[in-house]
Protein 1
Amino acid sequence: MDLTQGTTKEKQKRAKKTMMWFAMISMTMTFAGLTSAYVVSKSRTDWLTDLVFPDAFIISVGVIIASSACLYFAKKAIDQENRSLATILLVATFIFGVLFIYMQFQGFKDIMEQGYYFTGPSANIVPTFLYIIVVLHIVHVIAGLVVLLVVIYNHFKQKYQRAQTLGLELGGMYWHFVDILWVYLFLFLYFVR
C-alpha cells in the first residue's frame, strides 16, 4: 500500500497512528533499558532475595486488564451506536485506571512495612529498582488518564461516531500499550529475582 495515496484525512489518520507507534516504541526502549539494568544488577552482593512481592501489585494486574477490556468494549459500543453503554465503559476504564494507581501505592506501602526503603541509610537497590520502574509506569498511566478524560469529554460532545473514532483509537492504542507494559513489568519483576 502506497502511504502517499488517499485523501488528506486518511493521510493524517495514518500519520497520527504512526506517531503513536513511534511513541510506544520509545517507551518500550526506556523500560527495556531499566529491566536490562535490573538483570545486570542482580550480580551485586547486596541483592535482596527475601523481598515478598506485594499482593497489591498482583491485584493491580487484574485491575489493569479489566480497564483494557472496558475500553475495548467501549469502542465496540460506539461502533454499534450504543452511547449509554459506551459512557459507562469509558468511565469504568477511568475508574479502573485510578484504582490501579492506588494499588501501586499500596504495594509501596507493603514493601516499606517489610522494612525495605527506596532511599536513605537502610535503602537497598532492589526496592529502589522497583520504585523507579513502577513510578515511571505510574507517570505513563497518569498520562493515559488524561487521555481518557479527553476521550470521555469528546464522547460527551458526540465527536465519536461509527467509523469516526480516531481520537478513541489513538487513546486506546496508548492505554492498551500501558496495560500490556504493566503485565510485562509485573511478570518480569515477579519472576526475575
Protein 2
Amino acid sequence: MTEKLILLGSTGSIGKQALDIARKEKIEITALAAGKNVELMEAQVREFKPEFAVMNDINAANELKISIADTKTKVLCGTDGICEVAQGKGDTVLNAIVGIAGLKPTMSAISAKKTLALANKESLVTGGELVKKALKVSGSMMLPVDSEHSAIFQSLQGVREGDVSRILLTASGGPFFGKRKDELKNVTAVDALKHPNWDMGAKITIDSATLMNKGLEVIEAVHLFDVPVEKIDVIIQRESIIHSGVELIDGAMIVQMGVPDMKLPIQYALSYPARLPLSDHLDLIGLSKLTFYKPDTDTFRCLDICIDAIKRGGLKPTAANGANEKAVELFLNGEISFLQIADLVEAAVNNQKDCHSFTLDDVFMADKMAREFVVSQI
C-alpha cells in the first residue's frame, strides 16, 4: 500500500479523486503539483500539509506563496519544480498531468525508482520507447490508472504469458455516438462537452467525442502490454460498465466491470496488489442490458489516424498527440470546427518525417512542430 504519495495534477478530476482516496486511507501527501488553480491548491495544502506545492504557472506560484505564507509548505514553479518533487520523498508518484507536459515528470519519477501510477497517457503515446527503456534501467514499477488500461491490467492477473489472444479496449462512443459527418458540421464545444457517462476535464471530453482518446489509448496499450496494435480491438460499450478486458486463446473472455467512476482504478494503483473497500457497487439486476457496437471510423476518423501512426512508428504518434492538443484548444476557443480536428491531426502525422530512433529532445521538437503545423493550416 502506498504510504507517501507525490500527486501531480492535484486540482484536476483524477487528482481530486486521488485525494479522496488518500483521505479515506490516510495516505500521507508529500507533494502536490498543479497548473493555475491557486484557490483549490491552497485548500489542498491546508488540508494535506505537503512539504512541497508546485504551480506550473509562475504567476500562480507567486500568488500561492503569498496565500500560504503562514504554512510550512514550500512553493516551487514550472516543469523543473514538478520534476524535482517527482524525485522527492514518497514511494509512489501519481502522474495525472494532462498532455505531453507529463512526460518529463514521468521520466523523473522513473529515474528516482519511484512506483509510477500513470494517468498521463501522453507519456507513453509520445515517449513510449523511452519510458520503457527507463523502466528497465531503474527497475521501477508502472501501474496504469486510466480506467481501460487498469481494467486490462486487472483482467491479466493470473493469466500466463502467451495465453492472450487479443486485448478488448472499450469506449463509450462519446456524446455524438450514432451521428454522421453531416450532422457534426456545426456542433459546438458546449455540445461536445456533454459526455453521457463520465465527468472529466474539457480536453479529454473533447477527445472522447472525436474518438481521439481511444486512439491514444490504443497506442498506450501497445506500450503498456507489449502487444502489436493488430491484437487490440476497440469496442463501443455504451453504458461504460465493461471497462475493458482480454480474450484468451481458448475463447474465454476476462473483463473488468464496475460503475463508471475513476476511484477504483486510482485506488487499485495505490493499493496494488491489495484490494480495499469502496462504497459504490454495480447493481447487475438494475443494469438490465449492455450494448456493444463497432466504432464508426468513417465519421470519427481520429481512432484510425492514431492506429496508423503507431503502425508507422517513430515520432508519428507524437505528432498526432501534439496536433490534437493544439486542435482541441482551437476548437474550444471557437477557432475551428469539430470535424477539422481529425483533418489537422492526420495532416500533421503525414507531415512528420519517418525516423527509427529518437531522444527526449526529439519528442518535444516533434510536438512543437506539430502544433506549429496545425496553426499554419488555419
